[in-house]
Every structure is written in structure tokens, then in C-alpha cells.
Amino acid sequence: MNLKERAIKLKKEIPAVYLALKNKETPLLAKICAWATVAYALSPIDLIPDFIPVLGYLDDLIILPVMVALTVKLIPREILEQCRTESEDLWQNGKPRKLIYALPIVAIWLLILIIIVRAIR
């Protein structure tokens, strides 16, 4: 499977993970991973900003696919298949962008900043 096919598959998995997050039968650990994955995927802010050469695209090429793969492994197969079926036309006009999904990323950067400031003192 080449990189383009993987990207297309990843794009189809995120809405399914989003629906699995809302499913009552999804285990708690899978819901936690699904929440983190969906929040990161939909966040308008990246953990590593894209303007940083090379590293800026690592999150899109490595971090997000790893998060999706881990979440998919934690979701029971029958629930995931049901969510994949339901999600086929979920985000036809593109994924939703909401600032609420940026909060975890902003919190991580603030925590890093606090650690750096305390280390300098």
C-alpha cells in the first residue's frame, strides 16, 4: 500500500473513530484514545506547527496515523465495522473545525512553556 492509499484510508477511519467515541458499547480505554485522536485530527492547531521545516509535517505523517491505528485496534471489530458503515458520508464537505478541539494541544504547549520557564529560574 503506497502513501496515497494510506492517507485515503486514514481519512476514512477518523469519522469512524469519531462515531465509535459516541457509541455506548465502546470500551473506556478505546473511548479515551478515540477522544485524543479525534481532538488531534480536528484541532486547527498542530502539536508541531507546519511552518517548522520537516518536523512540522511529522505529526501529519507519523503521529496521527499511529494514534488512529492504536484506537482502531482498541475498538471491538463489530463496533468499528458498524461505525465505518455509518461514517461513509459523514464528512463529505470536509472535516469540521472547532476551536474546542484545539484546547488539548494548547494545554500541552502551555505545560511545556511552564516547564521551560521553571527550568530557567
Describe the structure.
With 121 residues, the protein is mostly helical. The protein has one domain. Helix content is 69%, strand content 0%. It is built from 5 helices and no strands. Helix 1 packs across helix 3 (55-74) and helix 1 packs across helix 4 (77-86). The termini are far apart. The mean pLDDT is 80.
Which short descriptors sum up this protein?
121 residues; mainly alpha; globular
Unreliable stretches covering 5 or more consecutive residues: none
Number of strands: 0
Give the topology string: H per helix, E per strand. Answer: HHHHH
Count of domain modules: 1
Q: Main sheet?
A: none
What's the gist of this structure?
The protein has 121 residues and is mostly helical. 69% of the residues lie in helices and 0% in strands.
Topology at a glance:
Elements: H1 3-22, H2 28-42, H3 55-74, H4 77-86, H5 103-120
Helix pairs in contact: 1-2, 1-3, 1-4, 2-3
